[in-house]
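Quick one: structure for this chain?
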Amino acid sequence: MGNSKAIPMEPSTEYVSLYIRVAIYFSYVLITIWGIFAEWKLKLMKYNPISGRYDDGKPPAGYARLWEEFDYFYIRQMYRSISDCWNRPICSMPGAHVNVMHRTTTNSNYTYEVTGESTRCLNLGSYNYLGFAQNEGPINDSVVSILERYGSIGTSSPANEAGTLDLHKELEAKVARFIHKEDALVFGMGYLTNSTSIPAMMGKGDLVISDTFNHASLVVGCKQTGATVKPFKHNDMEDLERVLKEAMSTQTKDGASMGCAYKRIMILVEGVYSMEGNVSNLPGIVALKKKYKAYLYVDEAHSIGAMGNTGRGVIEYWGINPDDVDIMMGTFTKSFGSVGGYIAGSRDFISYLRRTSFSPTYCESIPAACTQQILAAFDAMCSPAGIAKIKHLHDLSNYFRESMRARGFVIFGAKDSPVVPMMIYLPSLFAEFSRECLKKGIATVVVAYPATPMDKGRARFCISASHTLEDIQYALEVIDEIGDKLDLKFNRFSDWYAADGPMARTLPSPTTATTTVTAPATALVQSSLNSTPRSKSVVSSSKVPSPSKHVKSFIPSPLKGGNASTVSNMGWFLNIFREVQN
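Got it. Here's what it folds into:
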């Protein structure tokens, strides 16, 4: 049923040298000091670029502050200088390519104005894993027909009142059959699926054991339960067992054993972690779940549709019996190109959840058109073309990941995962990387503190089945060029991925969704390293670029002791001053 492969944990995936770590913290210290001086300057001038007067965020006399003082300072003096790297508006369908609107600012990034112009970019930032976010084709036609029948508005009512349509019942049955569960319940929003349902499952006297890298919706849901919440180190089975052992061997003050002090224990994990790109160690978690008689809740938001040979998520990826996972959760916002989420389990459990979860009682149901989008996407996934589309996604993801590693970048993520994070570390560099990518016609996402640990700033690439091999090769060429320019190649083990290296692999060739041609990965990687960069004007072309004369595949970064010029060696440091001067 599944692949049952070991989680790849190469030495490069978790290593951060002392030199880089010192540079990271020095960067933040320098930016913070500069921000303090900038704040003093504004205060002395009594000037605010927006209102014309200085505003330190203090509330009126007698009122308590609505926000933390440091948060206000962070947004004004640290985030603001690089805020152009986020919240970029688009004006097209977020498919394989997307139109990113141009913005301008006249007050140092306090506010922006759109210019009316846009750039056509290769989209490596959307969760459109299977390419169903589209405005043409049979899926779109079926959605249009539903609009004519049900109207364009939502249900205007929660599911437990007048918001349940025949389409919702059909979707719930289809979800349950697809993931081999007795029943399922659908929700109008993915975030609410977790945050409003976990409190209905667990309560006072219970224990929730949560992976430290779990999504905010899981964290919020845990906080609302009233149960005891204990984290375990990300994907660390030894630490998970330690927490379980402690829960099962509670002692009194005099040292006598009381056994388990909790009524119920539930383990919460994700299938694919959206910031790391790696897969939960489900075989190990299931073994511990059985050993200690705990319940298991798996969030498959980023894995349903994208992982496993037929898109059934990490359960299929690992070859796990669905009966070994008590509660399965997923969303329709990624692979299905729609909205909402689901929870699946036993028929009795789902019946209980319909009456106790906040969402079916207080939140509006999924609109009819969006429900039809999901149903049609399910039908497409289960067809031969859909299975080929999933394989194409895996091939592209693996090809892109291994090619990036071969070029010297530090890459996180597991095999087949469509999420490919690239470590950038330094705050000035991920801002510059984002800007350079936009100039070259690539739309991507950069992530930094506080969304990630302070020393783990990164760019996150999301691969889609709607991408072509040429799209991925173009992205590799551009990122390779930017990586040399900004000294982003921190991978000390890049030679491991060469054709004769210990980590050399044989992966299928990225192909169109209807072909099954395969080739060695090393040949593919070398071919892309030797190809000629394309101009931005032909990003969407379907013609594969021909190989040119040999291009240097990897220049050792000065931050790792390479032999590049002194100017290049100081590039990362000068970028810090460039940012704080904004």
